[in-house]
Amino acid sequence: EGALDGAPLFRDQSARERAIDVFSQLRIWDTEHNNGVLIYLLLADRDVEIVVDRGIDAHVGAAGWEAICQAMEAEFRAGHFERGVIRGIAAVTQHLATHFPRDGAAANELPDAPVIL
Q1: pTM given for the model
Q2: Which domains does the chain carry?
Q3: pLDDT tens for residues 92-105?
Q4: CA 95 to CA 67: how far, in whole Å?
């Protein structure tokens, strides 16, 4: 998201609250194994929020998600935006592959394409 504006800004909504709102709107919580993940980037603030469902969170925990956010934000501060995004996605993907490996028959339940708000 380029910047908080309109309704979220008027409600004094934080980036974290907005990320949770988007997680809900996109129905990321609606997966069979409760392993949906949203990487939310507030570009104007170079802020990263990762919102996850309880299935994957039970395996990774808050410290694991925070480490990914901090690594991405460090890359952004250094001006390495593409590298930061790619490394963040790779780290999340590694957790998903480790804890919820594909068995060949399972379809991806959510689209992987970025959503720009």
Answers
A1: 0.85
A2: 7-99 (3.10.310.50)
A3: 999 999 999 877 65
A4: 13
